[in-house]
Write a structure and sequence with these properties.
The chain has 215 residues and is mainly beta. The chain has 2 domains: 94 residues, Immunoglobulin-like, CATH 2.60.40.4130; 95 residues, Immunoglobulin-like (Sandwich), CATH 2.60.40. It is 5% helix and 39% strand. The protein has 2 helices and 16 strands. A 5-stranded mixed sheet has the order 5-11-10-7-8, with no helix packed on it. Strands 12-2-14-15 form a 4-stranded antiparallel sheet. The longest helix has 6 residues. The chain is globular. The relative contact order is 0.26.
């Protein structure tokens, strides 16, 4: 059941128990997307924490212009990079207890990895609107404080193909009588994998099993 001002999605796979991490955002068609630089500057910068050789959280959604902090809370070095669409950057090697930051200044999807640990990955979705949300485990999406008007709805999910996601985009009207987005069917890519190359476009070198302790 859809809650007021919310959307629900169904994934194209049976027996799903976790319907989270589907991103939905609404771009106003009647007026330009409102900008609030003062709020952005005073708000606490979101974080993608490196801990236990993983990112916390795995996916983060921010508005254009957001500054994201990358604190290293592991007891060893990391080298975070993104060489894909969205924001391209390389934070270089930095040690435990330190932090780096990146300002995401244009819309797009950035896939993040660590050049040392192949198992690490994260995604930053940057949107040009304040009206966005990510689904919970039950598949519900609730976008608060959306004014009445016409919007272009966009959907993104890491395990879907771009062409399938593009087909989900549509115009929606929000009014006193219509606050729901309707059901959204998100189809999984059966060939999806987290495997990736390092920042030099090469395969990761497996850590040695003898000789010294590898992080």
């Amino acid at each position: 059941m859809l809650r007021p001002g919310s959307g629900g999605h169904q994934r194209g796979a049976a027996n799903r128990t976790d319907e989270s991490q589907v991103v939905v955002w609404l771009t106003p068609l009647d007026t330009p997307s409102p900008a609030d630089p003062a709020r952005r500057e005073t708000a606490k910068a979101p974080e993608l924490v490196q801990r236990n050789k993983s990112f916390e959280p795995h996916i983060i959604v921010v508005q254009v212009g957001a500054l994201i902090q990358f604190p290293n809370k592991d007891p060893f070095f990391h080298n975070i990079f993104s060489m894909y669409d969205g924001k391209r950057f390389d934070l270089g090697l930095y040690e435990a207890g330190t932090s780096r930051s990146v300002r995401f200044d244009r819309p797009g999807v950035s896939f993040l990895f660590c050049n040392i640990h192949a198992e690490m990955s994260a995604v930053v979705v940057v949107v040009d609107t304040p009206y966005f949300a990510m689904s919970d485990r039950a598949g519900h999406v609730s976008i608060p404080s959306v004014p009445d008007g016409s919007y272009q709805m966009h959907v993104w999910y890491e395990r879907s193909l771009p062409e399938n996601l593009k087909g989900l985009s549509r115009v929606v009207t929000i009014s006193e009588k219509t606050r729901g987005l309707g059901a959204i069917r998100v189809v999984d890519n059966p060939d999806f994998t987290f495997a990736h190359k390092n920042k030099y476009g090469e395969d990761y070198v497996p850590p040695p099993t003898q000789g010294y302790e590898h992080p």
